[in-house]
Known about the structure:
The complex is a heterodimer of chains A (about 250) and B (about 220). With about 250 residues, chain A is α/β, with parallel strands linked by helices. Chain A is about 35% helix and about 25% strand. In chain A, a hairpin with a 2-residue loop joins strand 9 (about 220-225) and strand 10 (about 225-230). In chain A, helix 4 crosses helix 6. Chain A is globular and about 55 Å long. With about 220 residues, chain B is mainly alpha-helical. Chain B has helices spanning about 5-35, 40-50, 50-70, 75-110, 120-140, 145-150, 155-175, 180-210. Classes of the chains: A alpha/beta (about 250), B mainly alpha (about 220). The interface between A and B is medium-sized, with 14 and 13 residues.
Amino acid sequence: MENLEKKIIVNDLDFYYGDFQALENISLEVPVNKVTAFIGPSGCGKSTFLRTLNRMNDLIAGTKVDGEVLIDSENIYHECVDVVNLRKRIGMVFQDPNPFPKSIYENVAYGPKAHGIKDKDKLDQIVEKSLRQAALWDEVKDRLDKSAMGISGGQQQRLCIARALSVNPDVLLMDEPTSALDPIATAKIEDLIEDLKKEYTIVIVTHSMQQAARISDYTAFFLMGDLIEHSLTQNIFEKPENKKTEDYITGRFG
Amino acid sequence: MVRNHFEQQLEALNEDILKMGSIVEETIYKAILSLEKQDRKLAQEVIDNDDVLDEYEIKIDKESVRLTALQQPVAKDLRQIFMISKIATDLERMGDLAQNIARISKELSEDNLIKPLVDIPRMAQIVQGMVRESLDSFVNLDEVKAEEVGKQDDKVDDLDNQILRELLTYMIEDNSAIKQGNRLIFVSRYLERIGDHATNVCERVVYIATADRVSY
Lengths: 254, 216
């Protein structure tokens, strides 16, 4: 990891929901063009941590952050940072597919339009490129004007990925992106993640340890707000260094 | 413990290895006894018992594959299941080698021995001890003990050389001793090979316990 270029560097991050400290002194580096997976039991702070990486927690009242999150060496919690622009660079995909109740085309064109692109040809190009990157183009190219609510859950999730990609982010944060999908739709997303890491840095929270093992290059294990171990995925699943990690991944936790 | 069911199945697999190990130990013991006592019947019994170990090996392999497919073991569990399958192969090979010895016992059962057997039974005793102790280290995943046992292999190798030299002397002096000398050299070599497999078991125990590969 030492020799890799870092996209995200987190230093001594604490996070509070009111009085409750959800993350304690987290320091972690995310290498560029790699998939980093966060695993851990429910309530361990992994999703909270993911959301600190594009300041999604700002939207929750009573939260507080200490420490710093550097993306491309810039602290995203600095007062000068434009949060809308930040979230354009750091895209996000959620657990349940959440397309807008609009056409497939409009779902993907929405972001670029919001960021000021009006040229129809340019928008067409972005929509096609994003849908192709999300491995959805061939399935929807003949019904781009149809409602996004009419495609399958797996397709909707890939549409949400296309929507995130349409504003040309650097980083893609994924919060359990396949937990609502069947195994085939899951396999498509996992395959897609493998392709997307060539262009993007991907951070994924997953409840499925097998998924983390299959798709990630690095894995970080969280427990009760602490980062217990962060290493090459192969090391985590072959010979974890921390007993707590071993107990969790072998199912002997608790 | 959350995965009680898995835990029990893994434990059952461990027990199969131990049962197989005790059969192997007994097979080695009987094979050498049949040689010392020139007991043709006992030698035949060892030879006829081959199937039992083969069946254990197949059963253990099947169960290892099944657990891997259904339980997705990782880390130590995964190392343990992989190594159990390899240990089963080691044990099966040890059984084969003991049977080879029994075949020689049968062949030599009518002959007058050219000399009383001293070093071969001694070597057999060390090798049996290695088999037993390697399995003890497996039960307790005791890498320290595994290393101790693995290092005994040098003694076995030394005895093998000594036996070879001694029997060569007999054969040079008296060419009617060649057939028997030759067979006894094979017995020594089979025991040495059994020792190597016991050493393999020790190396696998270290790998399960520490995730490090060692070679004794």
